Amino acid sequence: MDQVLFWIGRVLLGGFFLFSGLNHFIGLQNLSGYAASKGVPAPTLAVIVTGLLLAVGGLAILFGRYVQIGLWALVIFFVFVTPWMHGFWSVQDPQQRMVEMSMFLKNVALLGSVLLLLYFWKSQS
Hints:
single chain, mainly alpha, 5 helices, globular
């Protein structure tokens, strides 16, 4: 049963990150505009790089290859993207602030899961 839970979790989490990364390329124009609205320099390049970080992390989790590299790619993604794109503390509109806070906290929770995976993966090798 433990192996089944492990594989389901791996597919769900890795698939989430892979889909998110691919979405950066599918929606490149829209996401670049959103990044520009947040003051990101070179927004198109930033969306491409962050899409690659997400895709690399997702693929690593899904296939169990180069997992530490993939997990570190996700750590880098979350550390830089989360405060920049979801800085709820600077949003004036209360409803938008709530949305940004939810996105910020979701990313913090995902970062926590990635750090836990990094710890467990290192202890297994």
